[in-house]
Amino acid sequence: xxxxxxxxxxxxxxxxxxxxxxxxxxxxxxxxxxxxxxxxxxxxxxxxxxxxxxxxxxxxxxxxxxxxxxxxxxxxxxxxxxxxxxxxxxxxxxxxxxxxxxxxxxxxxxxxxxxxxxxxxxxxxxxxxxxxxxxxxxxxxxxxxxxxxxxxxxxxxxxxxxxxxxxxxxxxxxxxxxxxxxxxxxxxxxxxxxxxxxxxxxxxxxxxxxxxxxxxxxxxxxxxxxxxxxxxxxxxxxxxxxxxxxxxxxxxxxxxxxxxxxxxxxxxxxxxxxxxxxxxxxxxxxxxxxxxxxxxxxxxxxxxxxxxxxxxxxxxxxxxxxxxxxxxxxxxxxxxxxxxxxxxxxxxxxxxxxxxxxxxxxxxxxxxxxxxxxxxxxxxxxxxxxxxxxxxxxxxxxxxxxxxxxxxxxxxxxxxxxxxxxxxxxxx
Length: 428
Description:
The protein has 14 helices and no strands. With 428 residues, it is mostly helical. The longest helix has 36 residues, at 133-168. The chain is globular and about 65 Å long.
């Protein structure tokens, strides 16, 4: 069996097997993790479908209602096509992966491609008892699941959540005023009548927005956690200086994972809030804000790649994808330290937050809207909470215990997995 993989892909798959990793990669905690991720995927599918049905069955569908359907179909089809690319590569490089049944399954289940990878990951995890290399393949399959779900988050959940905020929050400011302050027409009501809101804010309206946001944070956190493990299985020699088996393997304990999840929950919440505010108040200007940030992210990632490996068309496409993912969260598919990248990323995100808030204030000044003054402060507060949680994660939860060194502050180094020098080691 060959573990050769193309280095130009978004994620480097199939680490080279040297000696058996210790301890095993597949444990009962991995089973629980797989169940949680699988349930999240299936429930998210149902929630998205119910949102589309709800919008199309309203007496007066919201403007651009077709976008809900687009952002329901697009991510699952894109993930399915990406899975076909993976399957084609596996069919060329691995024995037993090019059967007709495998192609039929990949095509028929194209809208549910992560489920195919979950089943493969489960098979490899169970097989680790008899073949330790299957433990590495289990981690690899879970990274593939993470990549496919990034398509789901980026192309589906994020734009759909922006639309929900536009239609169910900013577009219903009077209903939210009634929900928080009670009916306002008290002078027209007798002493014994009970006023009821005209269009009440129900639990379902709030739940589906919070669920999509939670699923986005969970997807990004899952990808970061599992890709770190794959990187350290690929290049264990770069992490031998770390103390503790969990640190050398890139494993996070429950508290660290929870802090990382909460940090992304609030950070992603601030991103989609800002985009929805600009989209509501200024319409197409939101494409300028997001597009500018996307270009900056893409150029930044290209500089990192050029610094060590040169430029190819495949890497250019990868940089476009990474730049888009960085619109909502900072990922680290190349490994190594990223303290400098973290600082630069949050500086860019802060400037974007200020720009979104300014555009909202400029458009809503003097309107008397319920959210005119509240929305920018809400966006800024949840952004700062996300930043504080990220700082907390890097300070007390990160397995590598990053320090403020010259190398640690690099933000554009293409190969950040080089061993630390003696001066850095003394500072750890």
